[in-house]
Structure formats: C-alpha cells, structure tokens
C-alpha cells in the first residue's frame, strides 16, 4: 500500500472540538503512522482551525453536503446527525490512496494502522455492523431492530476478532447495515460523484441514520465487515458481553447524545468506567496544552460543556 494514507474526521461545530483533540491525541499516543485530516465547514472559526494546525492535524475546508429540500427529515431525538451527510466528503480526499474515516467522539485504544493495509477493492468500503438491539426501545428505530436480528448477537470471543459477521442472502435486514463511525475507503472523485448522484436521485426518506444508511444502500453487497473492535460502540460492552473484551478494543465509540466531555465524573451511569478512559486521555491533553498552548486550552475549555 502506498504511504499516501490518512485518518480523517469531520468538525462542524465548536462543541465537538474536545472530541477531535482527544481523538488526535489518542492516535498519537498509540503510535499511529499516518496524519489526522480534519474536514471543517464554514461554521468552524479560523481560531479553531489554527489550533488544530498547531496540534499537528491537517485541516481541509469542505462544503456542507445535504439532501434536496424535503427529501429527508430526522427525528428530533437524532437532530445531531444533521451534519453527518458531510462526512461523505471524505471520499474527495483524493490526495490519499487510503483513508480511515473516524467519528469525532472516538478514543483510540490500540494502534490500528493495519486498516491502512487492508485488502479492499477500489469501489468498496469496510466497516463494522450496526448494533440493532435497540436497548433503549427508541420508538423511531426500525421495527426489526431487535437482538435476534443483530449481527453481533451470534458473536463470541475470540472468534469475533478474526471472523466478523457474514452477510448472506437469508440474513436479517440489519445484517446489511453498517455503523459509519469507522469506515475504510479509497478516495476517488468519480466514486464521490456517483454517491452524490445516488443521494439526490434515490428515495432516502426512510433512512434513520443519514450517511451510514446511504453508504449501506450504495455499497450493498460490496462492503466488507470488520471486527467489532475497530468501532467498539460503548453499548456493546453491556449488550454483547460474550463478544466484548476490554483489552481488545482498538477504537472506542462514544455513541448516543451525551459525550464524555459533557458528563460530570460520577454521573456516567453504566458508562462511567468508559468515560473515565476518555477523561484520562483528556487530562493528558490538558497537561500538555496548559504548558504549551494556554490560549488554545482556553478555547477548548470554552468548548467543553463539562470538562471535569
């Protein structure tokens, strides 16, 4: 694989700045050999862009991407996903041969540069399955999101690390769905143009999760399942205990509305220990920035609803 490779994430609002900084800090901590590219929209100030650059990230300006007016709407519960269509702009990072797209609410626990070398056809992607258990019984989730239809339910340790769920013609519908927190891809302007056309010409009114449902639909039958450990949704630790092992997590994904920088210590409930993992990395970042970039740290402190 060519060394022209990178990790990438999207930042559209100040409130996710602590997440992006911790994501980058954790990539550096585990010895990742490739840079983090932060795609930013016009809603991100020059002050924030300069801070990202000082911290060693590569900043790329991108235009917002969204469906045609009236083509799609989100449940009020999931309004935070409104900007996630823009994640698809990662496919336009054609200065790289391989990119691993990561959400800003992730923590890298172990080096996963092997994803850069993953055997992947040019017109394909790799990702981890959704968890379709719907443990909180959210009424706007699809009716077939039940444990019996979740691809992770049959997974057990250690085979789950090397043999992710298989998709067959008779698999339940959720087996065909991916979580777009971690996506391995080969950038191509031609591919982006095709996906953009798909966005504007396909009935997307039933999509519950913008970018990831579109990716699952566009790449149906062509996306490669990855092991859960590359996109370890925090809920999996409690819902899929036979599969989960703390020490095997490469990339921890803090899904759901409350992010670890918005929750006070001791108020994390079932996720308190996992939030502590994030805070440990955040505190290391804090110690560094307070010494080397006090102005930048003041900006981060303003961005975090609750930092400590």
How would you describe this structure to a colleague?
- Pfam families: Glyco_transf_8.
- This is Glycosyltransferase family 8 protein.
- One of its GO terms (molecular function) is glycosyltransferase activity.
- InterPro entries: Glyco_trans_8 (IPR002495), GNT1/Glycosyltrans_8 (IPR050587), Nucleotide-diphossugar_trans (IPR029044).
- The structure is a single chain.
- By secondary structure, this protein is an alpha/beta fold.
- It has a single domain, classed as Spore Coat Polysaccharide Biosynthesis Protein SpsA, Chain A, CATH 3.90.550.
- It is built from eight helices and ten strands.
- The chain has helices at residues 17-29, 46-54, 159-162, 189-201, 210-218, 236-239, 272-292, 294-303; strands at 5-11, 36-40, 58-61, 98-102, 106-108, 125-129, 178-185, 224-225, 232-233, 251-253.
- The chain has a seven-stranded mixed sheet with strand order 3-2-1-4-7-6-8, sandwiched between helices. Strands 5-10-9 form a three-stranded mixed sheet.
- Helix 2 (46-54) links the parallel strand 2 (36-40) and strand 3 (58-61).
- The chain is globular and about 55 Å long.
- The N and C termini lie far apart (41 Å).
- The relative contact order is 0.17.
- The model has no long low-confidence stretch (mean pLDDT 93).
């Amino acid at each position: 694989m060519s060394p022209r490779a990178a990790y990438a994430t999207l930042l559209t609002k100040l409130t996710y700045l602590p997440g992006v900084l911790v994501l980058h800090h954790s990539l550096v901590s585990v010895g990742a050999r490739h840079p983090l590219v932060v795609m930013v929209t016009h809603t991100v100030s020059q002050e924030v862009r300069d801070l990202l650059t000082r911290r060693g990230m590569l900043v790329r300006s991108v235009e917002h991407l969204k469906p045609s007016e009236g083509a799609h709407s989100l449940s009020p519960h999931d309004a935070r996903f409104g900007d996630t269509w823009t994640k698809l702009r990662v496919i336009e990072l054609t200065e790289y041969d391989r990119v691993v797209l990561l959400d800003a609410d992730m923590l890298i626990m172990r080096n996963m540069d092997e994803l850069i070398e993953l055997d992947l056809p040019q017109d394909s992607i790799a990702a981890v399955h959704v968890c379709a258990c719907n443990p909180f019984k959210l009424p706007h989730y699809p009716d077939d999101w039940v444990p019996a239809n979740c691809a992770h339910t049959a997974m057990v340790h250690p085979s789950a690390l090397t043999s992710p769920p298989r998709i067959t013609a008779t698999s339940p519908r959720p087996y065909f769905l991916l979580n777009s927190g971690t996506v391995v891809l080969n950038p191509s302007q031609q591919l982006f143009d095709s996906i953009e056309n798909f966005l504007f010409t396909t009935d997307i009114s039933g999509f519950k999760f913008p970018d990831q449902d579109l990716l699952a639909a566009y790449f149906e039958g062509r996306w490669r399942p990855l092991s859960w450990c590359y996109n370890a949704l925090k809920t999996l630790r409690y819902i899929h205990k036979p599969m989960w092992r703390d020490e095997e997590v490469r990339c921890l994904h803090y899904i759901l509305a409350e992010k670890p920088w918005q929750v006070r210590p001791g108020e994390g409930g079932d996720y308190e220990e996992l939030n502590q993992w994030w805070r440990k990395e955040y505190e290391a970042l804090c110690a560094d920035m307070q010494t080397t970039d006090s102005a930048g740290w003041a900006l981060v402190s303003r961005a975090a609803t609750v930092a400590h």
